[in-house]
Design goal:
Length: 335
């Protein structure tokens, strides 16, 4: 159950609600998103919720049977919209495109990609500066200095940034340079990191774990929402399966199912989802038809020379063609 509080509730009202919850053996958490305040309550399903409805300070009550509550569409029907400022929004409407290299490599590389994005009217650039790599000998990113350069070039050109945060102690250093924090697949259940990001008022894109279920993904999002961060997106990026013809198995089902189960925007990552460059566009289009609110994919001026994920990265021509197809696709027919 979620109890939504009135804007003008008093401390006295809150204590009365808490007492009643405790009396009825509910475990509850007070959540403040900065816009509204709630009690998220876990307890008896059979109880008559009207006993709370009459209490002062209560605005509305919702029965939510899902394990996750605040990210559930049982609670909120209206889709969440992420507002990045300057008129750039994600969710409920147009398909958002986020594109860029797997890793930020140099100022020249960033400038070339920014020019490609500006030319194609894409407003959000991805690019890792802290890279999770399977081998310790692989390129692990340019770090904070790289992020500062990435941010400077993008801001000069009106482009927003999404980049991966890998651990707790990077958050404070990164926050001023980032528009969206990305939580990577390997950190999808790093609950301490999720707690910290939940305490921010900054958008977060949460990737599905390499072997993560949708329930686990939604619970991880709930970690952040329950700390008050309501600017969240879910990302399908392929899962590990028995199939080894391609890097990962992009789970198209997940797009449709997450759209139904949650009010959060759902973003598709076809680059990691299939891991082979020539299949990326068709998987991107499929995700769009399935109802994705956005796409995040890898593009590089010279993919063959990319320092990470070269095999799944599009060149500018392929990227431009994909953008054009995505924009001319009759999505409305499918929704
Ligand atoms: C990435 O976006 O480059 C990345 C490492 O993604 P994932 O966490 O999905 O593997
Ligand atoms: Mn990558």
């Amino acid at each position: 159950m979620i109890i939504q509080l009135k804007q003008n509730f008093s401390q006295y009202d809150a204590s009365a609600i808490e007492n009643k919850l405790a009396l009825n053996k509910f475990v509850f958490l007070h959540v403040d998103t900065g816009k509204k305040q709630y009690y998220v309550c876990n307890g008896k399903h059979e109880i008559d919720l009207r006993i709370f409805g009459g209490l002062k300070g209560v605005d509305d009550i919702f029965r939510v049977t899902d394990q996750y509550k605040l990210v559930s569409s049982q609670w909120r029907i209206e889709p969440t919209v992420i507002d990045l400022g300057d008129g750039i929004k994600i969710g409920k409407g147009n398909l958002s495109i986020m594109a860029g290299p797997c890793a930020i490599e140099s100022e020249d590389q960033v400038e070339q990609i920014v020019a490609h994005l500006v030319k194609n009217k894409v407003h959000i650039m991805r690019g890792g500066v802290f890279k999770p790599r399977s081998s310790p000998y692989s390129f692990r990113g340019l770090g904070l200095e790289g992020l500062q350069m990435f941010s400077r070039v993008c801001r000069n050109n009106g482009i927003k940034i999404i980049t991966e945060v890998m651990e707790l102690n990077q958050v404070d250093d990164m926050i001023d340079y980032v528009d969206i924090f990305q939580v990577g697949a390997r950190n999808s259940q790093n609950f301490n990191l999720l707690d910290a990001l939940g305490g921010l008022r900054k958008p977060v894109l949460l990737k599905r774990g390499i072997s993560g279920t949708l329930e686990e993904l939604l619970q991880s999002a709930e970690y952040m929402y329950s700390r008050g961060n309501d600017q969240l997106m879910l990302c399908e990026r392929g899962i590990r399966s028995f199939e080894n013809t391609y890097r990962n198995t992009f789970d198209i089902n997940a797009i449709a199912v997450l759209k139904e189960k949650s009010h959060l925007p759902v973003i598709a990552d076809p680059s990691h989802g299939v891991g082979i460059r020539r299949y990326v566009p068709v998987i991107a289009l499929a995700a769009s038809v399935a109802g994705a609110d956005g796409l995040i994919y890898e593009v590089h001026p010279t993919p063959e020379l990319a320092r990470s994920d070269a095999q799944q990265t599009l060149n500018f021509e392929e990227s431009a063609r994909l953008i054009e197809k995505l924009r001319s696709f009759p999505i409305a027919v499918c929704n």
